[in-house]
Design goal:
By secondary structure, the protein is mainly alpha-helical. The chain is built from twelve helices and no strands. Bound molecules: heme C (2 copies).
């Protein structure tokens, strides 16, 4: 009787030892070859443009947004124009794009220590209210306000290369025209207008998309496009938008 229970105990013990090895995923042999060398899947953003998301993002209360914006003025300016060319202007920023950026900062999908700590405590409704407020601000800056925009146009900004990329893109390299998604010709959902954006900020975003330091663009349009541009082209494009040329129809600056 005693030896029988000892055998039983031993059997139980060995089953306990072996069982985890038989569980899927616990096997000591390498997993299926398809998984080897593949990066883990990474979603660029937790925002997906479903109809309920569009509704949530676009139905903010601008008056409540105005009150919340008091804590943003310090960096983004009381009229939505920042005094520092490295900090983006928010005046007239389209609601959906604004709301998505706030969600991405809050979730850490877009890296910025300063903006993540500001966005994380806000509710989705707060972001919608702020989006409603900033989207209503005029995109022409008050000349009496301290602001960085527009900057003086550099020769590179006035070169044909920036205008050409904006109007025509570059078919040879598979670069679509910027104005097809950023306006004035077309707007892709979530693509902010760049017409009143600071040059230094635009340049930093293009470099960050190219290096992958910013990777929150759904379906990666910006990581692919910025990666195909040369550094000279990135500077020319940043200068073009930063000097306010983006407010004119781009064909106006193309050489005849
Ligand atoms: C201490 C300075 C500071 C304060 C205060 C601040 N921001 Fe920002 N904000 C920044 C900087 C810097 C960036 C650019 C981050 C980056 O480089 O990616 C930014 C980016 C943003 C963007 C992205 C804009 C774009 O074009 O993609 C939004 C939207 C924004 N801030 C909204 C807000 C709101 C709303 C508040 C107030 C609740 C606020 N910020 C307060 C510094 C600040
Ligand atoms: C196929 C559409 C598409 C095209 C073409 C495109 N973009 Fe974008 N771009 C986007 C989207 C969408 C975003 C917003 C990414 C996100 O979700 O944060 C963006 C973001 C940006 C930003 C960051 C803006 C901000 O406020 O943070 C810059 C700068 C930019 N694009 C520049 C360009 C330039 C310059 C070109 C042309 C060479 C270009 N884009 C062409 C879709 C496009």
């Amino acid at each position: 009787m005693q030896s029988c229970s000892r055998v039983l105990l031993l059997t139980c013990f060995s089953v306990l030892l072996i069982a985890p090895l038989m569980l899927p995923g616990c096997s000591p042999t390498p997993s299926s070859p398809r998984a080897i060398g593949q990066p883990p899947a990474r979603a660029p953003s937790f925002v997906a443009w479903k109809s309920e998301t569009v509704l949530e993002a676009s139905h903010g209360d601008a008056l409540r947004g105005l009150l919340l914006a008091k804590r943003c003025d310090h960096c983004h300016g009381s009229e939505g124009f920042s005094a520092n060319a490295n900090i983006p202007n928010l005046a007239g920023m389209e609601r959906l794009a604004f709301w998505k950026e706030m969600e991405d900062f809050a979730s850490g999908k877009r890296n910025s220590e300063v903006m993540s700590s500001i966005a994380a405590p806000l509710t989705r409704q707060d972001s919608a209210d702020l989006a409603a407020y900033y989207s209503m601000l005029p995109t022409a800056a008050d000349p009496l306000d301290r602001q960085a925009f527009p900057q003086a146009a550099t020769p590179a900004a006035q070169s044909a290369s920036a205008g050409r990329l904006i109007v025509l893109g570059d078919v040879g390299r598979g670069i679509p025209p910027c104005q097809a998604c950023h306006g004035p010709v077309g707007f892709k959902t979530g693509a902010p207008s760049l017409a009143a954006q600071n040059a230094d900020y635009v340049l930093r975003q293009l470099r960050d998309f190219a290096s992958g330091a910013r990777a929150n663009d759904i379906n990666m349009p910006m990581r692919s496009i910025a990666g195909l541009l040369t550094e000279e082209e990135r500077q020319a494009l940043a200068g073009y938008y930063g000097s306010g040329l983006g407010r004119l129809p781009a064909s106006a600056v193309l050489p005849k």
